[in-house]
Amino acid sequence: MTALLHNETIDVLLNRRSIRAFRDEPLSEETVATIETAAQHAASSQYLNDWSVIRVTDQERKDALAEIGGQPYIATAPALYVFVLDEYRNMVIAREQGVDVDGDAFTLKNSYRFSQAQNDAVLALHAMETAAESLGLGCVILGSILNDIPRLIELFELPKYTYPVLGIAIGKPAQEPALKPRMGRGLQFFDDVYNSDPAFVTRNIAVFNDEVHTYHDLRDPNTPVPTYDVQTANKATDTSVLERGFDHAAAQGFDLDH
Ligand SMILES: Cc1cc2nc3c(=O)[nH]c(=O)nc-3n(C[C@H](O)[C@H](O)[C@H](O)COP(=O)(O)O)c2cc1C
């Protein structure tokens, strides 16, 4: 395998792992300002800046998120953020500019904007994650908070043209999980065209299956982690994810059919 280049940024990225236990220490004001500003510097589709963040400081709301996500450590995170895709602010701006935001020509509510706003939010979240990790903090991204989207919308008073994307918990790590293996690069990177031969997948996933099986998951240290193929098959029929989709987008004013 070709040797990798190293610098501080690369090493932060290569050592990234999810942290799910935090020391009971708040982040300094400078740290908060730094990671929030780093998030703001992420790229933004057509410069619409169409994402916002709820910084969750109120313990009752933290508890509610932990309950929704079914993950108690969420309530103990020193810093907790919920990223939302946000065309509300842009709608207000456009309306002030005289745009008829109730007319058919108003496209901030349509699927392209929705998906690009989601991309923007994810890029910003990832910038925040990397910035936090570069300062010695640990993070975990939280899709589990989407288990009850209507409750999130109510909890954070999310207006029309906003939709929750992901949460992130950040703090000083109180655990040292092993790096989780990644599949061989050849399985994810194709030269010029996609290789859709199923035999290619089956042949090349075998080594990764074994590597994943030997990973020691701190969440359940006494149970061997299933091989990747078994994990994937289980997730392929996990109906709990149906709650986490875009079913509530129409109620938030979006028209994702166009
Ligand atoms: C979009 C997204 C949602 C995630 N949601 C959760 C979550 O709700 N709870 C959790 O404990 N980890 C969550 N994770 C973390 C993944 O489980 C983790 O990244 C993955 O198992 C790989 O492990 P690593 O981050 O330690 O490399 C999420 C990660 C991503 C990218």
UniProtKB/TrEMBL annotation:
Belongs to the flavin oxidoreductase frp family. InterPro entries: Flavin_OxRdtase_Frp (IPR016446), Nitroreductase (IPR029479), Nitroreductase-like (IPR000415). PANTHER family: NADPH-DEPENDENT OXIDOREDUCTASE (PTHR43425:SF3), OXYGEN-INSENSITIVE NADPH NITROREDUCTASE (PTHR43425). It holds the Pfam family Nitroreductase. Coiled coil: none annotated. This is NADPH-flavin oxidoreductase. Residues 14-172 form the Nitroreductase domain. It comes from Bifidobacterium criceti. One of its GO terms (molecular function) is oxidoreductase activity. Gene3D superfamilies: NADH Oxidase. Keywords: Flavoprotein, FMN, NADP, Oxidoreductase.
